[in-house]
Specification:
It contains two helices and three strands. It is an alpha+beta fold. The radius of gyration is 16 Å and the shape is elongated.
Length: 84
């Protein structure tokens, strides 16, 4: 099995773990870009982001990991919107 095949297998396993563990995250995109792996998407909290990165580091140990995970807040606004 080549290094590229191994990386693809590890990425697939990471996708499975993110979908099946308590985190149940399906909205994260994972792509192999050259020799590194890129994770990107939006998450609901800082804790969720931290957990995703922990799992990714476990599964992809030894591969360069890049990420662009944005935390989106779904809190109610703290002030009314003013329209002009």
């Amino acid at each position: 099995m080549s290094a590229a095949d191994t990386a693809e297998y590890r990425i697939a396993h990471l996708r499975d773990r993110l979908a099946s563990e308590d985190i149940a995250e399906l909205g994260i995109r994972i792509e192999q870009r050259g020799t590194s792996v890129m994770l990107y998407g939006t998450v609901a909290s800082d804790d969720c982001r931290t957990e995703i990165l922990r799992i990714a580091r476990e599964e992809l140990a030894g591969l360069p990991l890049r990420e662009d995970l944005v935390v989106v807040r779904a809190d109610a606004p703290d002030h009314p919107e003013e329209l002009s």
